[in-house]
């Protein structure tokens, strides 16, 4: 199985994972012919490099490089790059790497087995690895499975991943872990108090909906809210073609919270989980909401629409207002929300905002430990005036183009007034070029950092 470890195998081949400084010591443990073979291939233990060495009946093992200290700082999941090129076989790891650094490499191995083959035949590496003793292999496999779900959902094109299909994916997940799920669809959104979700999605023939999944009966309450804009044309403020090209990923927040939910439920964490996903398509027809419209949110706050392409914060606002009506120990929203966030930190890093400084520090440390990079941005109070247009309580798209990620986060915070601890992640959800264990395409961001932080965040 590409996302699983191999069963213990006494015939497994050694895979030495080493730094350049360890090369000669490692070669001294091989027989002379094997060592000379490795030297002859020019192997220097650079990051992601490998060299097999022969035995009496074929390949006897392989050496793989972690790289120099500089390379290690620049490259995540080095072992994933090695797996992608290793020949078929069952291997076991020989390395001095331990603890969370070892788990990073093992997770990289698992994630390098991911392929998105729904529309074209693709093959993954046939190399298999026996999990080292003392490693919680099942936990790593659960994390990899959650990440794979996120990637699959983002990679699926919008013609096959509309609001109904996103609902179906949530229902499948709920069924797998005996979670409860309810969905409010179409005009029922108006009747049940979700006017902005309805307004954003009403122009599409694919009905908007709010997905509400709940799991667990005891423990602290964690509420995850994910933006599920399955395709974003920009609405009447129509995007140019170049900006519309990746909009199948605009439900990346929903995909990421579903992947995180899968990890949490598979690991059986002792908490109560709620997942809220406003699922819509921002389309164009005669019923589309317009610039200068003023919408009244579930919270009662009025919102002036100054750009129909700033729709994600509108659907999230109604979902966050619902989350805020029931006590939670922590509310987290995740969304592919602003281009400003990408300009600020690029595609690799997930910027986030937190109302509690201790929570922010906990997530930052956890992200560093598990190689899931995150970076805190501020709720900068002086910018509050930028989202106050005067004619309504809030402006969904302040003019000027500055601090776009911060003003979006400030907007969302207005809808979480009863829950003291709230975090918002403005993710990209897309890997623009292939990297070890992270092929080009949809990718989860921030989920593993949150998962690693949960024991401290919620005192589990």
From TrEMBL:
Biological process according to GO: proteolysis
Residue ranges occupied by any Cytosol aminopeptidase domain in the UniProt entry: 307-314
Database matches in Gene3D superfamilies: Leucine Aminopeptidase, subunit E, domain 1, Zn peptidases
GO terms for MF: manganese ion binding; metalloaminopeptidase activity
Keyword S-adenosyl-L-methionine: no
GO annotation, cellular component aspect: cytoplasm
Protein family membership: Belongs to the peptidase M17 family.
The protein, known as: Leucyl aminopeptidase
Organism name: Celeribacter halophilus
UniProt lineage: Bacteria, Pseudomonadati, Pseudomonadota, Alphaproteobacteria, Rhodobacterales
């Amino acid at each position: 199985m590409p996302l699983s470890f191999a069963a213990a195998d006494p015939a497994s081949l050694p895979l030495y994972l080493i730094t350049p400084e360890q090369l000669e010591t490692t070669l001294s443990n091989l027989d002379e012919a094997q060592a000379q073979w490795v030297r002859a291939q020019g192997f220097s233990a650079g990051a992601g490099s490998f060299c097999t060495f022969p035995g009496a009946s074929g390949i006897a093992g392989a050496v793989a490089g972690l790289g120099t200290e500089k390379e290690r700082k620049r490259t995540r999941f080095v072992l994933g790059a090695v797996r992608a090129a290793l020949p078929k076989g069952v291997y076991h790891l020989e390395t001095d790497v331990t603890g969370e650094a070892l788990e990073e490499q093992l997770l990289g191995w698992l994630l390098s087995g991911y392929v998105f083959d729904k529309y074209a035949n693709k093959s993954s590496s046939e190399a298999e690895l026996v999990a080292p003793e003392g490693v919680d292999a099942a936990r790593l496999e659960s994390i990899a499975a959650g990440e794979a779900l996120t990637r699959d959902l983002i990679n699926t094109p919008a013609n096959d991943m509309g609001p109904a299909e996103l609902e179906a994916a949530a229902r499948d997940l709920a069924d797998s872990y005996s979670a409860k799920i309810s969905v409010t669809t179409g005009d029922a959104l108006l009747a049940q108090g979700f006017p902005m979700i309805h307004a954003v999605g009403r122009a599409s023939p694919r009905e908007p909906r709010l997905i509400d999944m709940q799991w667990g009966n005891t423990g602290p309450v964690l509420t995850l809210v994910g933006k599920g804009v399955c395709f974003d044309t920009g609405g009447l403020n129509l995007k140019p073609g170049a900006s519309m090209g990746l909009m199948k990923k605009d439900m990346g927040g929903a995909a990421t919270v579903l992947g995180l939910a899968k990890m949490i439920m598979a690991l059986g964490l002792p908490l109560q989980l709620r997942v809220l996903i406003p699922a819509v398509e921002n389309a164009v027809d005669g019923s589309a909401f317009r610039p200068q419209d003023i919408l009244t949110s579930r919270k009662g706050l009025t919102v002036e629409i100054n750009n129909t392409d700033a729709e994600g914060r509108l659907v999230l606002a109604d979902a966050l207002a619902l989350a805020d009506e029931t006590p939670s120990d922590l509310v987290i929203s995740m969304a592919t929300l602003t281009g400003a966030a990408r300009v600020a930190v690029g595609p690799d890093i997930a910027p986030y905002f937190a109302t509690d400084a201790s929570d922010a520090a906990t997530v930052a440390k956890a992200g560093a430990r598990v190689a899931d990079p995150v970076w805190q941005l501020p709720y900068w109070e002086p910018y509050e005036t930028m989202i106050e247009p005067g004619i309504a309580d809030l402006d969904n798209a302040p003019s000027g183009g500055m601090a776009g990620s911060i003003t979006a986060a400030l907007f969302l915070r207005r809808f979480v007034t009863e829950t003291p601890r709230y975090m918002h992640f403005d993710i990209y959800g897309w890997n623009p070029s292939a990297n070890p264990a992270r092929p080009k395409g949809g990718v989860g961001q921030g989920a593993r950092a949150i998962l690693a932080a949960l024991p401290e965040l919620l005192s589990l």
